[in-house]
């Protein structure tokens, strides 16, 4: 099990939070997600997904990952 806090640019409202949440949970292996405007805390199973796949799901919705 891995945990990460992802900083996200472009989120401005609760609708954005919902979209990012749906994108993250669509990735297999997600165990827990806690999202607020500008960031997402994610617990995931490393044998089922990678951080890169989670970040790509967020970016596919039009948000930018802040490194």
Question: What report would you give on this structure?
Answer:
The chain has about 70 residues and is α+β, with helices and mostly antiparallel strands. It has a single domain, classed as Alpha-Beta Plaits, CATH 3.30.70.100. The chain is about 35% helix and about 35% strand. The chain has helices at about 15-25, 50-60; strands at about 1-10, 30-35, 40-45, 65. It has a four-stranded antiparallel sheet. A hairpin with a 2-residue loop joins β2 and β3. It is globular and about 30 Å long. The termini are far apart.
Topology overview:
Elements: E1 2-9, H1 14-25, E2 30-36, E3 39-44, H2 51-60, E4 64-66
Antiparallel strand pairs: 1-3, 1-4, 2-3
Q: What is the number of beta strands?
A: 4
In percent terms, what proportion of residues is strand?
Answer: 35-45%
CATH topology: Alpha-Beta Plaits
Q: How many domain modules? A: 1
Percent of residues in helices: 25-40%
- C-alpha end-to-end distance: 22 Å
CATH architecture name = 2-Layer Sandwich
Largest sheet: 4 strands, antiparallel
Kindly provide the name of the CATH class: Alpha Beta
Order of helices and strands: EHEEHE
Q: Label the structural class.
A: alpha+beta
Can you count the helices? Answer: 2
Note poorly predicted spans: none
The whole-angstrom Rg is 11 Å
């Amino acid at each position: 099990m891995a945990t990460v806090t992802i900083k996200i640019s472009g989120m401005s409202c609760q609708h954005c939070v919902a979209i990012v949440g749906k994108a993250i949970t669509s990735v297999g292996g997600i165990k827990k997600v806690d999202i607020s405007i500008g960031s997402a805390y994610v617990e995931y199973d490393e044998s089922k997904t990678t951080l890169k796949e989670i970040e790509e799901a967020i970016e596919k919705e039009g948000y930018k990952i802040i490194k």
